[in-house]
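Structure (tokenized):
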């Protein structure tokens, strides 16, 4: 089996996910570009290869059980194992004026849709990839979260945390809670799992509003994906350190 480390990044065809793939590729990883859109995925793979990254496409819709199973089978055939899983794919859900999701008028189907991608999709992908990760020498899982997931910050009136987002923000809090449960389950293994906040990044996800570039947003994720043995697990990080729960 090749000594080259293998990574899978979901939602890697653009934005932060693409820059995560770029950064891992620059560090010598062979990178699976997970994305549901065939054309965008293959375009991203071509760009990464042109930049010197050993990349391959992974058709992947995190909301589809068959799609996720097929993706795990493809990685099995391509590489035989997985060393890094970055669960980056996520959605905000429909926003109202001012980028607000008002809890008093919230469409419950919207909540289900957001949770299906941001939480259940992460669980689905992680569990499908676990047999491959267990074959890795130093497996790492990074769940891309957000500072709006911090209940401490959300509840402090003296902290500017942005508009009310009653579907998206709780979905990321839920994701953080799930991350901790995985860390507890992995306590006696060599698998490290953490959540990462990329900050407010100018991508199409944010309507290209934000002071940070996708490359800057990818930095903490890449650091956690390449942690040495004995590194932290079950924690929530941003550039400046640990984010309070």
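Design, position by position:
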């Amino acid at each position: 089996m090749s000594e080259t480390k293998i990574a899978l990044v979901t939602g890697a065809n653009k934005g932060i996910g693409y820059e995560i793939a770029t950064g891992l590729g620059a560090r010598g990883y062979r990178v699976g570009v997970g994305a549901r859109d065939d054309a965008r995925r293959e375009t991203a793979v071509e760009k990464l290869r042109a930049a010197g990254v050993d990349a391959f496409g992974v058709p992947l819709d995190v909301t589809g059980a068959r799609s996720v199973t097929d993706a795990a089978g493809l990685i099995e055939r391509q590489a035989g194992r997985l060393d890094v899983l970055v669960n980056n794919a996520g959605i905000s859900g429909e926003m109202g004026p001012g980028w607000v999701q008002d809890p008093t008028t919230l469409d419950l189907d919207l909540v289900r849709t957001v949770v299906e991608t941001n939480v259940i999709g992460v669980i689905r992908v992680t569990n499908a990839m676990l047999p491959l990760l267990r074959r890795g020498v130093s497996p790492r899982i990074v769940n891309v979260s957000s500072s709006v997931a911090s209940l401490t910050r959300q509840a402090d009136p003296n902290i500017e945390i942005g508009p009310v987002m009653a579907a998206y923000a709780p979905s990321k809090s839920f994701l953080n809670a799930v991350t901790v449960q995985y860390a507890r389950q992995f306590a006696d293994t060599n698998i490290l799992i953490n959540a990462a906040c990329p900050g407010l990044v100018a991508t199409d996800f944010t309507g290209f509003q934000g002071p940070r570039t996708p490359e800057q947003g990818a930095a903490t994720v890449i650091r956690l994906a390449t942690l040495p043995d004995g590194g932290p697990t079950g924690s929530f990080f941003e550039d400046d350190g640990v984010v309070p729960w």
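Reviewer-requested clarification: Strands lie at 6-10, 30-35, 55-59, 84-87, 140-144, 192-196, 236-238, 241-242. The longest helix spans residues 108-133.
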